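Trying the structure run again after the queue cleared.
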Amino acid sequence: MLDALTELFERYWATAASLSGPGFEPPPGPPVEGGSTRMPTDEERNLLALFAAGVKDDAIARQFGISTRTLRRRIQDLYAELGTTNRFGAGVAAARRNWV
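Done. Tokens:
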């Protein structure tokens, strides 16, 4: 069974498309309201960086000097802007928009 799965993986790997490198064009991100291509605020950039570092909400709120409830409201606003519902999706959408 393991040999068969290894062979299957190797076949798919050999035909897989590159996610980086020469000639790679990331797909466009979701449309931004009003068609604008706004840049993220400093707070949004910091929040995305802390997401990527795996920092918990309580620690992020302390670092920003706000309550956890306020932070969660801002996170939801960021998710809405990026058209996602979770941190992973926010990271992917932000990368597609060249925010990170």
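The radius of gyration is 18 Å. Worth checking whether this holds up in the mutant runs.
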